[in-house]
Amino acid sequence: MKRAGFTSAWLPAMLLLPQLAVIAIFFYWPAAHALRSSFYLQDPFGFGETFVGLSNFTSLLTSAAYSRAAWFTVFFTLIVTFGSLSIALLLAVKADKVIRGAKTYRTLLMWVYAVAPPVAGVIGLIMFNQSWGPLKEFFALFGWDFKLGVNYFDTAFAMIAVSIWKQVPVNFIFFLSGLQSIPKSVREAALIDNRSATGRFWDITFPLLAPTGFFLLITNITYAMFDTFGVIDTVLKGQPGNNPMTLVYKVYVDGFRGNDLGGSSAQSVVLMVLVLALTVFQFRMIERRIHYT
Amino acid sequence: MTTHKRRLRLSTVVDHAILIAGSLLMIVPVLMLVQMTSMPDLINMKTGPSLSIGDQWVPNFEKAMFQADGFSGINTGTRMLMNSFILGIGFAFGKIFVGMLAAYAIVYFRMRYASLAFWIIFTTLLLPLEVRILPSYEVVQRLGMLNTYQGLIIPLIASATATFFFRQYFRSIPEELVEAARIDGAGPVRFFFDILIPLSRTMIAAMFIIMFVYGWNQYLWPTMVTTEEGMFTLVRGIKQITQMLEGNQIPEYGRANMLALIAILPPVMIVIFFQSWFVKGLTESDK
Amino acid sequence: MSHVTLTALRKVYPNGFEAVKPASYTITPGEFVVLVGPSGCGKSTMLRMIAGLEDISDGTLEIAGRVVNTLDPADRDIAMVFQNYALYPHMTVRKNIGYGLQNRKIPKDVIAAKVAEASALLNLDDYLDRKPSQLSGGQRQRVAMGRAIVRDPALFLFDEPLSNLDAKLRNQMRIEIKALQRRLGVTSIYVTHDQVEAMTMADRIIVMNAGRIEQIGTPAEIYHTPATTFVASFMGAPPMNLLDGQIAGGAARVGDHTVMTDAPAAPGPVTVGIRPEDIVADPNGPLTLDIAIVEELGAHRLLHGTLAGQQLSVHVGKDSPATTGPFRAALKPGAVSLFDAGTGERL
């Protein structure tokens, strides 16, 4: 709040009203609802529900399909996050360095940000098409018989590749803006102190980019967990079968397609807890960062 | 001296090579999509993407825009395009409207329960819609908002991203400005319209672009709440596109890819043309 | 032209911090009063209470005979110039100056006339249609002044208005502001941490420290008879030398040196204050200083050294010889101020 804020009782309340109304109805109500139904078993025909305590959760934890999806989510998230972060960092460092064509490169490397995830998935379907997909053909040169939607590993590979492709631009934008905010004097001082460009990068640039990198780490984990839904759904063509899927996709498949509301709500609650833990971790780290600087 | 120069050149060449490779990685897949929209479906089915440019752009475009399938026969490309614009613009507008007002109240007013309001609002940043997707669906269903634009847009607005962004921005505006305005006799309403909105123009534009792209690209939520074909957006209609590929004797690659292309073109154009605003808005929200 | 009267005006923040201890004084019509003190001394808070930007915790505030404690800033008949100018960046100079009048529903032609008058006074005619970002620091400062002038307020408030300018411009604007205030005759309160600004601009200075008023007086009074050691050390550059001394047998001594023969104080420890320029070179003088450093400033020199082992500075003319080492000196008559060694108050 500003020191010399306005004083009025009704005006700020009116200003907050739209926001509060929207989040009350479409955030807190559903969130509370999810929490509640995770402790209930819904009658499949819609006649009432029974309180079952934690049994929705225990059956989750013992479900092989769920733990398969959970492990896949972990690997998927790690690979997508680090893959897209490292590619983006490399490109950002180079784009920050070159003088000629810097603006053109920037545009060329960032526009994919605006491509919707499911469209990225469609493009993935072309690239890995069974009969003539260019990447499929390329892998065939090395004797890799790529079978999208049939082979578990190949399908996962396609999902990851598309998800990384879609995420590189936003990371690139943040890294580049982080690099450009490093003061010129610091770079010049480093130039005098260290003649090796690689040394300068690891000793000076990389630590100074750490705050950006940390912010992106969290954003990317969230992206890989939630926003890849469109990619996965398109790559799987809506037919999960025995294919890999992430936890969010499973919430959707079980709850929306399978009508297991209690189980799906329990899954939602698990995801909520995960995200909350991630956020608390993020705030802790940010606090520590402030303490140190 | 000469060796030094040569080494410098070599590293520059490597830099450019990496950047060009990266750029190609971004562009080539989409170029393949574009190339396929120019070819007859039969050739697409047999050979996939190639280097030749065909003459099917116009017919494919016409099919994509005006041909409908499904039961109702109204989910033409034009219809989906319109719905996408309604979602993108409606979402961006709603988000900015709600967010600016709330941020204004939080930053510029002395309120009781200010910190309570703050926490109620900013807790919503923690849980993305995807986590509470089913209960949200139920709420929308109970309110009778399935297959309506309100049902499509408002639940997406139910988080505080824009509020948070505007709060950060308002806090960066020098304090003396509101003090000067108060001495100049401007009340809260006048200050908002005379000073704050004109000052925030760039930020509003940046936010609009980001939110438009975000809304336009929504997939999971539209998939759940819109089941009537007349309500489909382009991105939500992607499923139809992939089904076109699967279902027919000769998959309609030309038409499907053209629809995919139409789905990415508006947001991509906006991001490219308003690049500096967009980048500023995006990276500013990090602070 | 109007009185401003503060009666036991006080500011306590919710966390219990007392930013301004009860302060009372009256400012006479047309007077230029400078509030000076180190940062955090409460001078800005006091100004902001007068402006209405900060709530008054206790006491009363009258402007032109009206108690304005709870009035909105806009209703107090004041104008304020801010440290960073606080110009509206999206408005032209013309709109910036006229905005306050426009909010008061004053007819357009009257606003135009007043803006024209103010801009003529401030030499802003060529810049009326520019935005603040296209102006230099000094020009922005003038626009901020213009915004204050057009309102014909009962009281001008200045919150460190020159601190963002470079030294040369600051000197120039100092004179401009002072001249303008003289011309308009508007009662003014000016906050600064710069003692030179305070000395040169004020009719009366109010020195503040730690939320308390240390002294109110004309620049000469403040300089020559500081009420406390704080005032003595804050006003003047270099500041008054403050030395630990003793009163014995009616004389004030620093170490073995007698600095005052008829000290009006009881025997015991005192703080002895001597302005650097009140120490003059004198081969037969009673004091022997040990000079360590000579600062050459052209028109004069500053000698830094010790007297009886205590640090002090001497300000001598350019004609006075200056070398390091022993330095015989005498004091000008009436040069010595005595302060209570415990409380720091003038004896």
UniProtKB/TrEMBL annotation, chain A:
Topology in membrane: Multi-pass membrane protein
Segments forming domain ABC transmembrane type-1: 74-282
Membrane-spanning ranges: 69-93, 105-128, 156-179, 200-226, 265-283
Listed GO CC annotations: plasma membrane
Domain of life: Bacteria
Biological process (GO), any one: transmembrane transport
Signal peptide: none
UniProt subcellular location: Cell inner membrane; Cell membrane
Principal place of residence: membrane
Function: Part of the ABC transporter complex UgpBAEC involved in sn-glycerol-3-phosphate (G3P) import. Probably responsible for the translocation of the substrate across the membrane.
Family statement drawn from the similarity comment of this UniProt entry: Belongs to the binding-protein-dependent transport system permease family.
Assembly with partners or alone: The complex is composed of two ATP-binding proteins (UgpC), two transmembrane proteins (UgpA and UgpE) and a solute-binding protein (UgpB).
Protein name: sn-glycerol-3-phosphate transport system permease protein UgpA
Source organism: Loktanella salsilacus
Automatic annotation (TrEMBL), chain B:
InterPro entries cross-referenced by the UniProt entry: MetI-like, MetI-like_sf
Domain of life: Bacteria
GO cellular-component term (any): plasma membrane
Membrane topology label: Multi-pass membrane protein
Assembly and interaction partners: The complex is composed of two ATP-binding proteins (UgpC), two transmembrane proteins (UgpA and UgpE) and a solute-binding protein (UgpB).
GO biological process: transmembrane transport
Gene: ugpE
PROSITE patterns: ABC_TM1 (PS50928)
Transmembrane spans: 12-34, 85-109, 116-137, 149-170, 191-216, 258-279
UniProt protein name: sn-glycerol-3-phosphate transport system permease protein UgpE
Matching PANTHER family: ABC TRANSPORTER PERMEASE PROTEIN MG189-RELATED-RELATED (PTHR43744), SN-GLYCEROL-3-PHOSPHATE TRANSPORT SYSTEM PERMEASE PROTEIN UGPE (PTHR43744:SF8)
Keyword Cell inner membrane tagged: yes
Domain ABC transmembrane type-1: 81-274
Species lineage: Bacteria, Pseudomonadati, Pseudomonadota, Alphaproteobacteria, Rhodobacterales
Cellular location(s): Cell inner membrane; Cell membrane
Record's keyword terms, sorted: Cell inner membrane, Cell membrane, Membrane, Transmembrane, Transmembrane helix, Transport
Keyword Cell wall biogenesis/degradation among record annotations: no
Family, as annotated: Belongs to the binding-protein-dependent transport system permease family.
Functional summary from the UniProt entry: Part of the ABC transporter complex UgpBAEC involved in sn-glycerol-3-phosphate (G3P) import. Probably responsible for the translocation of the substrate across the membrane.
